[in-house]
Specification:
The structure is a single chain. The protein is of the alpha/beta class. The protein has one domain: Glycerol-3-phosphate (1)-acyltransferase (3-Layer(aba) Sandwich), CATH 3.40.1130.10. The protein is built from eight helices and seven strands; from the N terminus they run αββαβαβαβαβαβαα. A seven-stranded mixed sheet has the order 1-7-6-2-5-3-4, with helices on both faces. Helix 3 links the parallel strand 3 and strand 4.
């Protein structure tokens, strides 16, 4: 079933879009890492299965989708992890940590949900916590062209959308100190978000467009 779903993803995307990618060589062939990406449309998840034939790749999705029998079936084959986006989900965090410690990789959007504006919104601290606690590298990923409204508008005009995936250089997040963990977590969250912002076109950078770290990474 997994091979069929990946085949379906590839053929549907090729039918409706011109899909390009930059920096695929920055993804390790094996081992644990955290791919931190912006999230602007439903098709974002499919891009990772489009480009990578890896069964050790796990993707957190909103717990509301767990109610759908179809989504649960897809989740089993495409390795979704259902999480509570609005409250601290310690059970899900432990599960993701265990998956990475077992050698699996994690693909996650720090914003926690799709951006309604298409540009970066405030990142949540869960990804920074996972990166700081696990010590695994973070790989920033920027996605453009998957906004739901644009995809649907192009489909109505029988026009293929232009979708791009850009992968930045992996980096490590420093462990959390014994002192003020909240401030440290926010600093590390901003670091991750600014790495993502720096590989996105300007209109997608949102609240991180003028952040000092974004400007530093752009140089």
């Amino acid at each position: 079933m997994r091979n069929f779903l990946r085949w379906l993803i590839i053929h549907v995307l090729d039918l409706i879009a011109d899909v390009s990618a930059e920096g695929l060589d920055k993804f390790p062939c094996q081992g644990a890492y955290i791919a931190a990406t912006n999230h602007i449309g439903f098709l974002d998840i499919t891009l990772f299965h489009y480009h990578f034939n890896r069964y050790d790749m796990f993707i957190p999705v909103a717990e509301k989708w767990e109610k759908s029998r179809l989504i649960r079936m897809i989740a089993r084959n495409l390795n979704f992890v259902f999480i509570d986006r609005f409250n601290p989900d310690l059970k899900a965090l432990r599960k993701m940590m265990n998956l990475m410690e077992a050698g699996n990789s994690l693909v996650i959007a720090p914003e926690g949900t799709r951006s309604r504006s298409g540009s970066l919104a405030q990142g949540k601290q869960g990804v920074a916590y996972l990166a700081a606690r696990s010590g695994f590298p973070v790989i920033p990923v920027g996605i453009t062209g998957t906004e739901d409204k644009e995809i649907l508008a192009n489909l109505r005009r029988f026009k293929r959308s232009k979708i791009a995936l850009k992968i930045g250089k992996p980096f490590l997040v420093e462990p959390l100190p014994h002192g003020d963990k909240d401030a440290a977590l926010q600093e590390r969250t901003d670091e991750i978000m600014c790495h993502i912002a720096a590989i996105l076109p300007e209109k997608y950078r949102g609240i991180y467009a003028e952040h000092p770290k974004t400007l530093e990474y752009l140089k």
